[in-house]
Amino acid sequence: MIPVTVVAGYLGSGKTTLINQFLKETESPIAVLVNDFGELNIDAELIDNQDSLTLSLTNGCVCCKLSDDIGVSLESLKGKDINAVIIEASGISLPIKIANYGLSWPGFSLKGILAVADGQSIGTLLEDKFVGYTVKGQIEQADAVLLNRSYGLSLEALNELNKNIFLEEEVSNYGDLLSAKYFAKHFIEENLKEHATFQSSIFTSNKPIKREDIKKYILLNPNIQRAKGWVCEENGVCSLLQMTPSECNFSPSDFKSQTRVVFIYTGKLSPPEF
């Protein structure tokens, strides 16, 4: 039986970074199934899997639209030289349905659900009338929660949702988070309440785009929950954009083709005029 771990967490919480840490610290081949909300699957391109065992699940929220794709992808992994499977759930999904595949798909076993939370935004997100239910469910349904950037954050509210919380600074070996000792419960029931309605919009351009213009656009559109992609400025300088509910960062990138950014939002979004 191949163990399956589901990595859940809201948009921008650090799921892809965590998975790359797993891959960096393990010597065993691990397959990764990655889902982004929308058609531009950037996270799959950011997974550093040297064994080329990263599969993309595209075109929607993995908990709502891609159940068949999960089964097909798991089936395609049978017979390959892998020791484990990690499924990175969409940042707007509840992990119960995905976890049930690990419980029921022949040849696989569910190890557990690991949720990732951003300490700088988790308090605001839990109180948000649009996305609070989703964020709360991701934490409640997890076997363990990894809290990034806690910075002295009070854990009282989180402990009411999940007692098994680990702070980023307490983790010496990220591979240990895949250990069965951290996973104490499995959710097999279905939660029928729908989460918030999200939409995605993709912006591409062959013209140079100033990062300051991107920042202004995000500020003028507070409904944007997540923005990520590559922004190519003048002189061929290209940056990786990572915007979350708590920050907006640009980091150097070797991507040299064109600007490609996906915006994930609730409500309405004004068209970009770059």
What does this structure look like?
Strands 3-2-4-1-5-6-7 form a seven-stranded parallel sheet, with helices on both faces. The chain is globular and about 50 Å long. The protein is 24% helix and 28% strand. It has eight helices and twelve strands. About 8% of the residues have low confidence. The longest helix is centred in the N-terminal third of the chain and has 11 residues. The protein folds into two domains: 181 residues, P-loop containing nucleotide triphosphate hydrolases (Rossmann fold, 3-Layer(aba) Sandwich), CATH 3.40.50; 67 residues, Hypothetical Protein Yjia, Chain: A,domain 2. The termini are far apart.
Features:
Rossmann fold; Hypothetical Protein Yjia, Chain: A,domain 2; about 270 residues; 12 strands; 5-stranded antiparallel β-sheet; alpha/beta; 2 domains
Outline of the structure:
The protein folds into 2 domains: 2-182, Rossmann fold; 199-265, 2-Layer Sandwich (Hypothetical Protein Yjia, Chain: A,domain 2). The chain has helices at residues 15-25, 42-46, 67-77, 96-104, 122-127, 132-140, 156-161, 211-220, and strands at residues 2-8, 30-35, 54-57, 84-88, 108-118, 144-148, 165-167, 199-205, 224-232, 238-244, 247-252, 259-265. Helices cover 24% and strands 28% of the residues.
